[in-house]
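Sample entry (483 residues):
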Amino acid sequence: MSEAATRPSVNSGALLASLDPLLRSWLPRQRWFAGKGRPISVIEPVSATELLPAGAPSGLLHLLVRTRQPMPPAQDAAFDGHPAERGTDCYQLLVGVRRTLPPHLAPALIGHVTGGPLAGFTVYEALYDPHLMALFLERLRMPGRHGVLRFERDPGVDIPSGLAPRMLGAEQSNSSVVYGDTFILKLFRRVTPGVNPDLELPLRLARRGCARVPAPAAWFHADPRGGAAPEAEPYGLGVVQPYLAGAEDGWELALRMIGKGEDFTGEARALGRATAEVHRELAAALPTVTLGRAQVELIADGMAERLTAAAQAVPALRPFAPELLTAYEALADLGGAGGSPTAWTAQRVHGDLHLGQCLRSPDGSWSLIDFEGEPARPLAERRLPQPAVRDIAGMLRSFDYAAYSAEPRSPEWAADCRAAYCVGYADVTGRDPRTEPVLLRAHETDKAVYEVLYEARHRPDWLPVPLAAVRRLARNGSPDDAL
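Predicted structure, serialized as tokens:
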């Protein structure tokens, strides 16, 4: 796998032209593809790097491809980016190349190439292939450049050779491979130029010795333009972190304990403390911002715009929109009145916190993972300082989801866990989030509106969960009212 032994660059135009019909069919079927339901107009090459040459028993290609698709009317009207970026997404692919695909790799098939430089070969999703992913770990172990790719690592962390890989199948926005129950590689799928928060924030926290977040051991990015443009930023592509063997994610744990009739409030309070500790370390590691009236109004206006776009896309939301809007108007009014000093401090946050982003180790300690934020939002927005209550609102909504999933449904469980979580947060910060109800209601409403849009697009059977919350929030009732 040395750079001298491979040909890092290939003719990306000719290669992608031969793969184009296969990718048009394969990409929309992937769980991480963001443009479902819309035809792909164009697939363009961004970069192609040969990590292992075709012609051996199996080759390995790293591809960055840009897709162009027509945007839905509501999204098109709200789009305020550069016209050239309208309806475009860039995806990262690891493509295996073989003459014949063995039966155990049949689920990984992308297709059979009939023309171009790979004519006569079969291409497939390389993450299914233990041989190729073992070789990819070797590349990650060696810092340096390989074509447009640059690999980096923490020199103080030993990543042993020969760790057996296995792909995880539970993710949607990204893909992960576990190596020997020791490390986990998270491969970002939909990528943009700039530092990915899922690398940036854990690195910052690791430097402060924060044990609540697994520290990055290795990572890699791509610089397709070679840094020629002054404004050019590399694409963050993936990160290797310690794998918490035996840990259980908070969502599965909560569902299991609900099913057994076991109390979860102790875990919820511990999760509140863990969240507060991570917020405290993020505030110490990165700059904080005091929000003035104009900034608070901008936050409220952004929430209102998202509500308008979501109501256009989901008719079931429209009857509640006028009442929901009052939550954002109250936030803007409170900002104008000054509010409490803690309410208007913004800092870097997790950005998409819920039970599934939390892991409980066998010793009972909680860790937070996946700091990428909401993938549908622009990277620049995900890296902005936000009120910490945004994370709190996400976790409170997650308790609601878990309670809805129980049979019978258990609104009391959700109310007890929400209260315990807030108490745990106050154990560390001295401030219970419930003492700022206007701020909390606005952020919970914003989160519920996001959930309505997401469920309508991806999981219609789950739409009643956020709609029930919307109904409560619209009448300004307690989020802990009956489901």
